[in-house]
Amino acid sequence: MGKIIFKEFNQRSPEYLMCKECEAPLALPQDFHCVCPEVGAEGLVFNDRMILNVAVDDENDRLWSVGPLNHIVADVSCIRCREVLGYKYIQVDDRQQTVQNGMLNFKKEMVQRRHGEEVIDGEAPEAVQVNIQ
């Protein structure tokens, strides 16, 4: 594994998704578009294009079954506190049409959103802007 670099967001009015344990920033507002709200019973699924400060344990991927669908996933952890935040879809069952390879699923209870001085729990509906693409 290469050198791990922790990144902060430099903003006057901070608004971002962050690790609930250590408050490490994970994504800016324009990048936390939840693409799969129906999975929301357990977590929030994101494209991985602009997610920061996470490490994927792809050496220990595993089979994850949802009904008749079988996916290969790997844990995603915060690089600051090492807390497991969710998982990344490594290989999605061909019958699945909502998520794609490379998407991240953050467990709602593991993230929160900073909105100025306010901190919104990840399980609150307003924590993520839902934008199905």
From TrEMBL:
Record InterPro entries: Yippee (IPR034751), Yippee/Mis18/Cereblon (IPR004910), Yippee_fam (IPR039058)
Keywords: Metal-binding, Zinc
Superkingdom field: Eukaryota
Domain named Yippee: residues: 15-115
Gene Ontology MF: a single term: metal ion binding
Keyword Metal-binding part of the UniProt annotation: yes
Transmembrane portions of the chain: none
Record keyword Translocase present: no
Protein family per UniProt: Belongs to the yippee family.
Name of this protein: Protein yippee-like
Species in which this protein is naturally found: Sesamum radiatum
